[in-house]
Amino acid sequence: MSKILVVDDEFRIRQIIRKYAEFEGYEVAEAVDGMQAIEICRKNSFDLIIMDVMMPELDGFSACREIRKFSKTPIIMLSARGEEYDKIHGFELGSDDYVVKPFSPKELMMRVAAVIKRSGGNKGEERDVYTYKGLVIDFSARIVTVDGARVEMTPKEYELLFYMVRNKGLALTRESLISEVWGYDFFGDERTLDTHIKLLRKSLGPYSKCIVTLRGVGYRFEEAA
């Protein structure tokens, strides 16, 4: 049974998520703010954390940053703010998904299932490495280096880059990228993919040009001349 930590200062929100999560077979723990969430995570292991952004004591972004210092547990952020800046900030801190309030509990559970599945999806994978000039991608170790310097990426950046590189030279539609990387029928803002592509290009530095935009279609990874 997968264990979920629900972090939200609103009792009603916690109860709604608990109701649907337990119906889906998850074991649920709760925290009322970021500080409590950090303490709970230091003492317990979870398969996923659902974290509200706006909370007293310590906000969700700060709590996510602290948890990432000692844990790679997938985190889904909840927020009433859906601006691109907030989403980018959350992804840069290491969150795996971003859900805007008000949300559909059923949709949230689909996202929970998808993130948990993806977080364990690479176990047992044969070790292999892709190299293009100064870009080195170790798929098994989830390590990316650019001109000798290791690059830290968000979980979704890794998955997006790995999928594109494994299918280099192919035109990948937006639908296929969302389906393969997020692993569920996409209900959110369509700009989520573009936001991750923007972050990925920033991480790749001089190799950002390897990600080519195909207008009206999607993207392609190619070894630029």
Structure explained in plain terms:
- The termini are far apart.
- Helix 1 crosses helix 5, helix 4 crosses helix 8 and helix 6 (155-166) crosses helix 7 (174-182).
- The strands form three sheets. The protein has a five-stranded parallel β-sheet with strand order 2-1-3-4-5, with helices on both faces.
- Strand 7 (135-138) and strand 8 form a beta hairpin.
- It has 225 residues and is an alpha/beta fold.
- The chain has two domains: 3-119, 3-Layer(aba) Sandwich (Rossmann fold), CATH 3.40.50.2300; 129-221, Orthogonal Bundle (Arc Repressor Mutant, subunit A), CATH 1.10.10.
- It is globular and about 50 Å long.
- The model is unreliable at 121-127 (pLDDT under 50).
- The chain contains eight helices and twelve strands.
- The chain has helices spanning 11-23, 34-43, 60-67, 84-92, 105-119, 155-166, 174-182, 191-204, and strands at residues 3-7, 27-31, 48-52, 75-79, 97-100, 129-132, 135-138, 143-146, 149-151, 172-173, 211-214, 218-221.
